[in-house]
Design a protein that fits this description.
The protein has helices spanning 11-16, 85-90, 95-101, 177-184, 193-197, 235-259, 265-284; strands spanning 5-7, 28-29, 37-40, 45-53, 56-66, 68-69, 79-80, 82-84, 103-108, 110-117, 120-128, 134-142, 150-158, 169-171, 205-209. By secondary structure, it is of the alpha+beta class.
Length: 285
Amino acid sequence: MCGRYALGLQCAEIRALPGYPNLEVSEWVNEDNFVPRYNIAPNSQAPVIRRRNTSSPDLQMQTMQWGIPHGKVHAKSQQAINARSENIMEGVGMWNKYRVRNRCVVVSQGYYEWQTKGKDKLPHFTKHADGKLMLMAGLYHVSDETIPTCVFAIITASASKSLSWLHDRQPVILTSHTDITEWLDTSSHTWSAELGKLLQPAEGLMCYRVPKEVGKVGAESPAFVQPVAARKDGIEAMFAKQRTKQEGDKESIKRKRAMSPVPSLMQLEAAGKEDETEGKKLKVE
């Protein structure tokens, strides 16, 4: 599954869609509702890209809430933050209507997943190795209220071979302009086998361990997307501090030696005579 992701860039940079020079969005609806965060959790407001309408190829970015309510009572506990690719391809339940008209891509820098090791759960961050934005396939819903509520879910697939050690699921990531355009094209109002082929796990991603603090909803830091080993309080820093301390100790010893007075020849001779006298006294006694 995907239950947390990052998008801490400023809005102007997000609009530019780094890594996708041919992808243009005409506007950002409800841009003010989005606050850049490195720890986006369900129920947060975050941007997605969708078609302005089904008859126009123009794309727009829109801030929506993460989690599509389902069931008879639309409670927070009944929200779908993920949609399984298998259910979408089969047209199961509510996904059948969303898959033909309400497709989107969710904008992120990368996503978090927790590896289970015994009793520990170790967070990892997965992103594109070249640092470009990660665009995840999604579905959205717009309520029929006077003031519509817009919500979305992220599509997941079985994990790739390279990431199966981390978790058995991962988000569906659209990497090429062609795939993104095809996924967002809802003009036919139909589902096709070609669309189903897009719902595959991506390979060639970079994944590394990150600090456990990211697990707390509401916690926020740019360090959450940095490898633990590279943090100021990480392993690399620990060894660097040890090296610095060792070098400092060596310098301290050198300075003490330099400051200690070197005895002269006369002082050494006098000390020798005192030793002899002391020795004679001991023999007499």
